[in-house]
Amino acid sequence: MHYTEDEESALTRCNSEDDVVKGLLEGWLKLSVIGLGWMGLPTACLYASKGVEVIGVDINPRVVELLNKGTNYLPSEPELDKLLKEVVGKGLLRAITDTREAARQCDIFIVVVPTLVDRSGKPDYSALEDVAKKLGEGIRKGSLIVVESTVGPGVTENVFGRVIEEVSGMNIGKDLFLAYSPIRAMAGRTLIDLVKYPRILGANDDRSFMLAKAVLSLIVEGGIIKVSNIKTAELTKLCENIYRDVNIALINQIAVLCERLGIDVYEVIEAANTQPYCHLHLPGIGVGGHCIPVNPYFLLDVADREGIDLTLVKEARRVNDSMPIHVVKLIVETLRRLRGQVERAKVAVLGITYRGNVKEHRYSPVLEVIDGLSKLGVEVVVFDPLYTKEELASIGVKGVDSLEEAVRDADCIVIGADHDEFKDLDLDLIARLARKGACIVEGRHVIKRPEDVLRRGLKLRGVGRPYYG
Questions:
Q1: Which of 74, 122, 138, 149 has CB 3.0 to 4.6 Å from 103, enough for a Cys bridge?
Q2: 53-100 pLDDT, tens per residue?
Q3: Residue 239 falls in the annotated catalytic set
């Protein structure tokens, strides 16, 4: 057992939500955000902006160093620049690498560490287990932990909770309090999403829920959605993202059929969605980011252990994972039609990110397209206005600094990301600099009117589109 009776958290004095808020704002309650990545740093900044004293924890010394200097290290979140400098300058936010130290100093812990999957699709909860172990070695009786990392149903209790009970010698629901509230936010707009979106909150006892609701309500304006327990909250988060994955897979399959039938899938989508109960998503190069391609595996892992075969979820992952290779095949077919061969063709890829206007290439399907083309002897050059040539080189692709340089003498121009800069693409420039009769291959539905391409002597092809030209 790692505590004595005089080492109780000041949270034990709180009997209402108002008490918790008062304690945080007056400074006799301290809050720690553990994991200062894409969601953790904005979370820490929002609490600090309310006047709460926040200790951030991250195992990366470079992250801690940058935060303590007030330097924003998240390129996809430019709105953080000013806020981070402000709260660090006021002494409301500082960072350390030692979770045990935070455990000894703080009363409330928000855990936002990454949860990943390995190459076989097996969840990796090691970061979460490590936090539980280190918290357990220093946490005080009466403290609250709110887990916000995405996990499979039962993981917060059976993995995180079990470890912290074993290490601390305390019992959750009696000595320590535990709740689960998944993050609902998208890279590029995290601050506004954390504030405006309603938050799911689940706990297994009344006090845990009351304490967590008070803490979350300090920054969440969209309201708190109570669910009956932690497992329900965990599954709710997974369902949100799996819903999108499955529906994207549906339209991706229809899009491939449309290519064969000579039908433009976007015309189908626009018409079908006039029916009030039809909500077809958009097809594309693939599904990227750190949530949708990963989260289904957390549920599949639990379902497999329970003997339930979630065939639809598995098939959706297979379909969406296959789209980059499908796009490579489209480009290869196009190059053969244009020049008879693939080798030594030049392909310009516009945009490398998984989502428009967000400097984030993790799990970007565009990288797989580039790799597939390069292996076939295609010269691939990349232009992305969010990245320098040097940054692109560090990712492992040949980058250029301008659209002009990218499309000059290109046989094929692939639109990989729907950045605003590409939504008003200079087709005259492409027609002038690219090879005569070059083809634009659409991966993100940037070009709405095929005739705009055709009248400039260019050709158009894309996911779910016939060959225009």
A1: 138
A2: 999 999 999 999 999 999 999 988 888 999 999 999 999 999 999 999
A3: no
- Structure tokens given for 93: 């936010």
Q: Which candidate in 14, 45, 258, 291 is catalytic? A: 291
> Between vectors from CA 151 to CA 148 and to CA 155, what angle results, nearest 5°?
105
Q: Is 459 a known active-site residue?
A: no
CB atoms within 10 A of CB 43: 25
Structure tokens at 52: 């709460």
Q: Which of 134, 213, 237, 459 is catalytic?
A: 237
> What span, in angstroms and rounded, lies between the C-alpha atoms of 461 and 330?
8
- What's the predicted TM-score (pTM) here? 0.94
Model confidence over 371-397: pLDDT tens digits?
999 999 999 999 999 999 999 999 999
Beta strands in 322-364 (DSSP E): 346-350
Structural domains in the chain, CATH included, are 5-228 (3.40.50.720), 260-468 (3.40.50.720)
453-464 per-residue burial string, b: 16 or more CB within 10 A, e: under 16 = beeeebbbbbbb
pLDDT exceeds cutoff 60 at 431: yes
